[in-house]
Amino acid sequence: MLRAANLHSFHSFLVPSSPPAVAGPILVVDDDQFFRQLASDMLSRRGYRVVTVESAAQALEEVGRASYDLVITDVVMPGMDGISLTEKLRERDPAQEVILVSTRKDVKGSAMALKVGVAVVLPKPVDETDLLLATERALERAQLRHERAKLQNENLEFARYQHLHQRCLEFLSQPDLEWLQERVAAELASVCDAQSAALWISDDRGQLVLRAYRGLLDRHFLVDRISTEGPLGPSMREGQPWVAHEQRSPILYVPFVNNGELLGLAQLSDPLAGDFRAEHLHYAKILGDSAAVGVKNGRKMLALQRLGLRDRDTAAYNLSYFTDYASKEIYKARRYGRMFSLLTFSVDNLPLVRMRLGATEAKLAVRGIIKALSRIVRDSDVIAKASDQEFYLLLPETDFFGAMMFVRRALAAVREEPEAQEVEARLPLALVGGASTFPKDGEDFDELMYRCRRRMDERRASLQRKLMLDTLPFWDEVDLLLGNASSPRLPVEDNAEPSRRGKVSDALFDELQVEIARELMRDPTSRGLLYVGSPEIRSELPIVQGLESASPDMASRIYLLGRRMDLESHRALTPVFLEGDERMSRHEFILWLSENAAYALIQRRGLGATWGFHSSDTAVVDGLITRLQAEYDLQPY
């Protein structure tokens, strides 16, 4: 009796009364239905979940649909045998637990069993105790692997959240917006396994402006600005990341929203795994929310820094801040292929104002000029006071034509500023401006400043200043510049742009129109202003015919002025009909101001000869256009 009790106790120790709590299903594979049923009954009595199939092919299909902690398979089966099945299973999962059963005595411990990584081979007929013991040990190993994998995943998840937490703290504590923009794009790409990233940040007008990009993206295919009222607007305002599959590669959009304010948008693309997963959206949301707060904090810090770097009298920034800001703008322009413009303004006669009117009036004049400039700049533009009589401006995302138009607006704004008017009523202010553009005029601060000063010197030497043409109406200026055969020679300095008057070819007016039309067709994206004045607006004018096939989206604005004839409209130019203007009927002119050229031709046809004035003096061309616009109430900019 004692021996029987001991054997029963030993049997109970070997064979578990119930399966492990987390035991997964067991797959039994055998072409013998009797064995399948026998094995299923043995295992089911112990609480295991069992699925049976009769072939290796069915087993592979079943494993493709669900995961099995253990596969028990016969070695000898029609078609694919158990050894080949084990190889296939191990290809899918190298850790797959497999028990082989066979009537062959040479399988256990054989090279072919060890080759496929199977150490347990049970002989048929299978002993229930051996089967249950082998099953228990196999499932324990599977359970240990599951627990280890779970711990590894938990550790990885903890490390990932710790990493995210650290990145979020950096976003919240870093006041440098330039650093923040670059870092946000890099970190989002990293945590979302994306090879490419682009970042747009909201500007002072509420539009999203491209600030950073990295990876496989081509800069030319990235839009500079995204309107919050565009197709992406509703999704962005919801503040939740989303994936779009409209293009060749899925795109993950991550809006930066804080307290209902849209501060930015990140675009992630080219995912390493081919698509973005749910956890990527979760991580992106965490980083995006912190980035939104970081951008907001950075803006506040920048505002405080700027407040402490302003001149006390004029509120303009000091030169130290300006040069630092310009260095950062140069870096961004090089990095992202952008442009910006640098402008300089000088009150040349400020010492004379101080001497004649006193220091108080000189300060009043300077304050009025700064006020006028501050009234027309954007939030992203920077004004600095370099000295008592010289001021610098930096205009991000502004080309050379835009800079020239800003100089015009600035001079007009100063003339309208009450404090400046108060001084000018007693002594006119000699304000001169110059502009340069990155990278057109240079790629470092010194080069750009040199070009600005060169252009200021050109304006100082210009006929516009020598003849004080700013004070004359358009047609009075035309008469003065044209003169006649007995008029004195124009006071042109050697270092000034050439200006001449005298007899000109009768064909010059038409030839110039042909050349200008060719240039406009060659580069339709170049911005500029062109005014062609003629006694009659006719369809056979060379400029009309030369632009017949031009796109209506041409960047330059072109106007024809004269009496109405047979041309009512044109796709690339705007007719301005002037009826009954005798001065227009006696003159022809071309006024062209663009990023790359400045030219003026004014001529009056006479008996046997044509008398004309032509010049490449930018200040003269600009002045003539300004007076023409004022004369006929044309759009100034």
From TrEMBL:
Coiled coil stretches, renumbered: 132-159
GO biological process: phosphorelay signal transduction system
Highest taxon listed in the record's lineage: Bacteria
UniProt-listed PROSITE patterns: GGDEF, RESPONSE_REGULATORY
SMART domains, A to Z: GGDEF, REC
Domain Response regulatory: 25-139
Transmembrane segments: none
Domain GGDEF, chain residue ranges per copy: 338-472
InterPro entries hit by this protein: Bact_response_regulator, CheY-like_superfamily, GAF-like_dom_sf, GGDEF_dom, Nucleotide_cyclase, Rev_trsase/Diguanyl_cyclase, Sig_transdc_resp-reg_receiver
List of residues that carry 4-aspartylphosphate: 74
Keywords, alphabetical: Coiled coil, Phosphoprotein
NCBIfam families per record: GGDEF
Protein name in UniProt: Transcriptional regulator
Organism: Cystobacter fuscus
